[in-house]
Amino acid sequence: MIINHPLLGPRDAAEFVYLGDASLIDRPDWEDPDAAEKYYEYLYLRDNPAGLHRELWFHEQGDRSWLVVTRNTLTHEITNVELARDVAKAQGRSR
Amino acid sequence: MRYSALKILKEGLTGNRGWKPVWREPEPRAEYDVVIVGAGGHGLATAHYLSKEFGVTNVAVLEKGWIGSGNVGRNTTIIRSNYMLPGNEPFYEFSLQLWEGLEQDLNYNAMVSQRGILNLYHSDPQRDAFARRGNAMRLAGADAVLLDQAGVREMCPFLDFDNARFPIKGGLWQPRGGTVRHDAVAWGYARAADSRGVDIIQNCEVTGFDIENGVCRGVETSRGRIRAKKVAVCVAGSSGRLMEKAGIRLPIESHVLQAFISEGLKPVIPGVVTFGAGHFYVNQSDKGGLVFGGDPDGYNSYAQRGGLPVVEDVCEGGMAIMPMIGRARLLRMWGGIMDMSMDGSPFIDRTPVDGLYFNGGWCYGGFKATPASGFCYAHLIAKDEPHPTAAAYRLDRFRHGAMIDEKGVGAQPNLH
Question: Which residues contact A43 (CB under 8 A, 6 or more apart)?
């Protein structure tokens, strides 16, 4: 697979390591009264879709940036690549 | 029809005209006591033990494709019980014991071959870890022998003992491990279950569940609605896709794992051999091909094919321990989809929906578990309580921190 890095252009997926579903960006608030339940769902449960999947890849052998890659799990076709930082900021996170 | 040597002789002399189809092709009935979704190894084993051990015969096994068309038809055929943790080891040892009596139980030749499995170690700390694992295995009634380098050399003289980076210092040997003819497992269980009245219905895809007020009353299928008192899902690889239809999120990701086979060779590898410093395992099929594999590709996938970086990694692992493998040509490679769970261990449990049962999360170790998985799932379905050896395989164990993490890598499925 080739991941089209927003800053570096097309890179071999072998340069990256995979973490999982991009929902891992949305870490729950630890002070929330339901924090235990929310962390259980955040950490252990997955949608695991057959089709488009937004997922986190880390460019370990490159610029060490985190990316959010939109990839089809049925065909491995990659349709969108964003910097995870931009995705997190767009969701209101400070960094 | 019972199979025997006498029967083969008689049929041979009479033109082989007396053989009958091994299982029927029934039309689905409107209602069953138990509907099992998925006629792979585990689903068919569940049907067999339900009908034989627990007296439940009003059972249908529904299969989207043909029986055994999933991972029971595309694995590396290894059986073993060399686990360590208390939640796992008694279960896998139970499975190995069922393998040992399988052919007599089914009256079917599954070519169970206890040729042994050898896990190589390459350093002193790894030797200590393997000694500990061997002790845990023996405490659970399994067999384990810690070999030094001379012991391994006697068994496998072809290994690269003096490899500069990963010298082979010895191995953990389980003599009762081995290989089984994987397709015959599906066929043997199907035949045995069918002979006791279980309906095996192929080309029948489950498209939804009939759930009223939190109780599952049947399934919607491509061949109409089928009512059932109990519905047992057994579709590892597609668990996420199917359980979504019941509104249940799982602690599972679907990943692709590749396997490989070389051209046929004369006998060169005595049992199953695994690399301890990378991920590579190999055995030789009775036809002579070297059957081997390694790590999964490491990303979510429902496509039954993997990528070349993993092919390279697996072959490097092979070359590191047995350079002679470089002379063999690769004949075929293929990918299968597996449920990778959050701790690398499976689930055999009830679900929050009454009457709906779940079996999955086998990661890439489901084949060896087939008999015990079927037995324990049948126990759960028939008695509504878990079998003692599968009591730890709860679906909500992460909520309570009761994970069974053999590798200790945490909630990241692609590392298990």
Answer: B342, B398, B411
Burial class (CB in 10 A: 0-12, 13-18, 19+), B385: exposed
Beta bridge partners, B159, equal: none
Query: Which residues in B235-329 belong to E strands, given as ranges?
Result: 252-264, 272-274, 280-284, 289-300
Architecture per CATH, A2-90: 2-Layer Sandwich (3.30)
pLDDT of residue A93: 83
Q: B412 Cβ partners below 8 Å, 6+ apart?
A: A19, A20, B342
* Chain B residues with beta carbon closer than 8 angstroms to that of A49: 240
Indicate yes or no: CB of A40 within 8 angstroms of CB of B300.
Answer: no
Domains and CATH numbers, chain B: 25-81+84-107+182-251+343-415 (3.50.50.60), 117-177+254-338 (3.30.9.10)
Mean pLDDT by 10 residues, chain B (416 residues): 92 94 95 98 98 97 95 95 96 98 96 97 97 97 97 97 96 98 97 97 97 96 97 96 96 96 95 96 96 95 92 95 94 95 97 97 96 98 97 96 93 92
The full set of domain ranges for chain A reads 2-90
Give the pLDDT band (50/70/90) at residue A92: confident
Cβ contact (<8 Å) for B303 and A73? yes
Q: How many Cα atoms are found within 13 Å in the side-chain-facing hemisphere of B59?
A: 30
Look at residues B368, B360, B349, B378 and name the one whose alpha carbon lies nearest to residue B49. B378
Start-to-end Cα distance in chain A: 29
Nearest to A18 among B241, B251, B299 (CB): B299
Among all residues of chain B, which has the CA nearest to that of A48? Answer: B253
Instruction: Please name which of B178, B180, B179, B184 lies closest in space to residue B68, comparing C-alpha atoms.
Output: B184
| Residue A20 forms contact with B (CB below 8 Å) | yes
**Given this model, what pLDDT does residue A94 score?**
80
Residues on chain A touching B412 (C-beta within 8 angstroms): 19-20
ipTM of model: 0.95
- φ, ψ of residue B39 in degrees (nearest 5): -100, 60
Smallest Cα distance from A92 to chain B, Å = 26
How high is the pLDDT of residue A41? 96
Structure confidence at residue A69 (pLDDT): 98
